[in-house]
Amino acid sequence: MGAYILRRLLLVIPTLLGIMLVNFTLTQFVPGGPVEQAIARAQGQGDVFGGFAGGENDAGAEDFGASNDQYIGARGLPPEFIEQLEREFGFDKPPVERFLNMLWNYMRLDFGESYFRSISVIDLVLEKMPVSISLGLWSTLIAYLISIPLGIRKAVRDGTSFDTWTSGAIILGYAIPGFLFAILLLVLFAGGSYFQIFPLRGLVSDNWQDLSVGAKIADYFWHITLPVIASTIGAFATLTLLTKNSFLDEIKKQYVMTARAKGLTERRVLYGHVFRNGMLIVIAGFPAVFIGVFFTGSLIIETIFSLDGLGRLAFEAAVARDYPIVFGTLFIFGLIGLVVGILSDLMYVLVDPRIDFEKREG
Prior knowledge:
By secondary structure, this protein is an all-alpha fold. Helix content is 69%, strand content 0%. The model is unreliable at 48-69 (pLDDT under 50).
């Protein structure tokens, strides 16, 4: 097992390199880079994308040097100003040199500083991390605590009325988009047209620092309830059906019939024999569930509930072309995803020690 883990860890390096290379290459062809963003801000446009169509800024184009023609919004600005911006952002160097410098810095855990926020990327990530951790961990924990028992019960009572109406409710919940469900929760329970039970925005109240320890905990859970429910709904449906189908496959196997023939109770058969094998595929799906809730689903939920987390940070950085944040978070998230994948294999072995990945590879 040690050799297998070592090989998986060594594979992390080329995988991360490929992720960074593909995304770095794509950004070279995307219009509206950091220099254009800085130019748009300097001209009071606020956003570079409004200047792509031309307009009044085309006046004075004849005064702009030919070497800077790629910056459409820069017409009328002195070439020295553009060159200074390129040096500040590092765009005076060839793309290959910039990419190699970035990798060397990342190897030393130096993720640079935001172009527009005057703060290091790692400090910015650490500042936003608590919000995303709250959403990801609580959503994943609740999804597993509810979905696994429910899925097992549905498998045991397959075809009954309980299985039918719970399947209908699960499919209905899965069919509702997460953002629409979040809006529905706000309208119903956060001061919309009906009840004002939960707060509308934020992770804690403004006076959180002045509260007692017990009041702080209560205030935190009061704020996090609706976002967690909204982010859990998709994973909850998928995980429940996955658990049910996995246990149904195991229940129909020969070893279960043999265990019943020996006179073992149904509970002993289910939790002493079926559970270990049925849980393997559920554990295998843990990285996808965790990463999906933690990263993919966080953007919309954080935006709707006004939570300042990693999802909003990554989105705003992509729009502003703040490349140190874009590539820094991409590297960190990619590394976390790969490590979680290795941990899922270790959980396989923990649940069923008979699994030997080294023999399977051989």
